[in-house]
Amino acid sequence: MPKADKIFLVFYILVIVSALVTPKLLWNADNGSKCESDFPPPYPASNPTYTIETDGVKIYAWKHGQPFYESFDFGEVLEKVVNESNNERGGLIFIKAGYYNVKLRHAVVGSESKIVYNIGVLIYKPRNIIVAGEGYKTILQSSGNITDVICIYNGLNFTLCNLIVDGNKQAQYLPGKDRYAIIWTDGGGTNLIFKDLLLRNGKYSGMYICNSDVLGQVSNFEWYSPATNVTISNVHTFGNDVIGIFLDAILNATALNCLSENDYYAIGFTGLDWLNTLQIFKNTIIIDPVWGAFIGWYPRGKLQNIYVYLSRPQHGYLFDFTNATYIEVENIYIYSKTKIERLIYANNGNVIFKGDFIIAEP
């Protein structure tokens, strides 16, 4: 196919995708008052181990249809159910349609950094647990003064899927710090799955999969406890003020079919030259990042099939590969309605380009 025809085909697809996706995200950006179940539950919601629901005031948990626990605090109920599921070697926790306010429940101070982490829900050492919502009808919204809405600590075979988490940035006032996010993993973890999620309106990052142990119960080193085998699939990040999805030196992580819209940075990862990390962003659509599409700290990983749509100028380098440890870039397609002033920054030879790198701009 001639290059001109290929450019037209790629950008025709981008225009269609942005036309289909953008209105849906905007339509669901009203705290769910007009939402629909865009994420069909992949698990039999008719037979969960636990069901959580709300009447708009109180939160109720049911175990196989029988009353189990109730509280005015959503985080208290979910943590209680997770702990009980751990005692029973796992299970499906189904959060029914509704609006759930996530209150501040935990304040943790990093032993070395002295950074304060204000956590809403602490999912502590989940084992063989699935937490699933009812698609866009299940909305968890942060209350004020929360830096991390949901923290998953040292999960094993854990899945979070099919719901919206709203960071409620207007209610947050603490300045951004490392590892502040709507969803944050700590204490490593193995076989973690995040799929069919909308993470929106965060003052910090949307998702931060972290190489850390702030709670200090796994590695005893705050700055080192890498997660292994992390899958992120069909996660939408929207309007987050730091990064949409960030992978922090994960031993094996794949982010597949994700969408970033109006995030400050869309995606990013870090790497350690002595740590054999495998981190991939594949089939990613990026729409109107505020500053840039990619950022990293000694980044190490792969970008494959990245589609960028720009209706306005971005403020920084579109791809910032500063101090790259090793990055492989394969197939980048960019459509811009404005002139791209700063495309790529790389200060060493550790960025390898393969396949297509196609740009259309005025």
Distance between the termini: 23 Å
Shape, per Cα inertia axes = globular
Integer count of domains = 1
**Beta-strand fraction estimate:** over 45%
Poorly predicted runs are 15-37
The major pleated sheet works out as: 16 strands, mixed
Number of helices: 2
CATH topology: Pectate Lyase C-like
* Quaternary state of the chains: single chain
What proportion of the residues is helical, as a percent range? 10-25%
Radius of gyration: 20 Å
Beta strand count: 26
Structural class: mainly beta
Q: State the CATH architecture.
A: 3 Solenoid
| H-E string | HEEEHEEEEEEEEEEEEEEEEEEEEEEE
Assigned CATH class: Mainly Beta
CATH superfamily: Single-stranded right-handed beta-helix, Pectin lyase-like
Give the secondary structure arrangement, pairings included.
Elements: H1 3-27, E1 50-54, E2 59-63, E3 66-71, H2 74-87, E4 91-95, E5 98-102, E6 106-109, E7 116-124, E8 127-133, E9 138-142, E10 148-153, E11 156-166, E12 181-186, E13 190-200, E14 205-209, E15 228-238, E16 243-248, E17 253-256, E18 259-261, E19 265-270, E20 279-287, E21 292-297, E22 300-310, E23 319-320, E24 326-336, E25 344-345, E26 351-360
Parallel strand pairs: 1-4, 4-8, 5-9, 7-10, 8-11, 9-11, 10-12, 11-13, 12-14, 13-15, 14-16, 15-17, 15-18, 16-19, 17-20, 18-20, 19-21, 20-22, 22-24, 23-25, 24-26
Antiparallel strand pairs: 1-2, 2-3, 6-7
Describe it:
With 362 residues, this protein is mostly beta strands. It has a single domain, classed as Single-stranded right-handed beta-helix, Pectin lyase-like (Pectate Lyase C-like, 3 Solenoid). The chain has helices at 3-27, 74-87, and strands spanning 50-54, 59-63, 66-71, 91-95, 98-102, 106-109, 116-124, 127-133, 138-142, 148-153, 156-166, 181-186, 190-200, 205-209, 228-238, 243-248, 253-256, 259-261, 265-270, 279-287, 292-297, 300-310, 319-320, 326-336, 344-345, 351-360. The protein has a 16-stranded mixed β-sheet that branches. Strands 6-7-10-12-14-16-19-21 form an 8-stranded mixed β-sheet. The chain has a two-stranded parallel sheet with strand order 23-25. A hairpin with a 2-residue loop joins β2 and β3 (66-71). The longest helix is centred in the first third of the chain and has 25 residues, at 3-27. The protein is globular. It starts with a helix and ends with a strand. Mean pLDDT is 89; it is low at 15-37.
